[in-house]
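fyi for ur records
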Amino acid sequence: MPTLVEAFPDAKALLALEPEELGDVIVELIHRGISPNPGRFGLHDFLYAVNHRDTPEWPSSVRGQVTQAVAEALAYLEQAGLVISDPTQSQPTLWRIFSRRGQKLSEPWASRGVQRSCNPAG
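which gave:
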């Protein structure tokens, strides 16, 4: 499964992005299968590798900032109508799915047509 740690050389590169730019990377990671639950994903899926890494490139001291940046990017995707809470869950959950509009994004960075800010690993 792809991870944010593979997509960015270090935490600084991730933190330098605006929410919509990081949102584009998140869309690609979802398409590449970041979650073990096909079609569903949550904040924890993006943070797992970050929270289990303590290297000079990904120090534990920036985990809070990375968590906030990823949460902001997911909020951007929700506000843009690309991601929604999973309506099939009987209880309110943290699971998200692509909206019908989001499902149409078959190519990375299709949500805004921006130039790549990083090169997610394949």
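The CA atoms of residues 13 and 27 lie 17 Å apart. thats all i got for now
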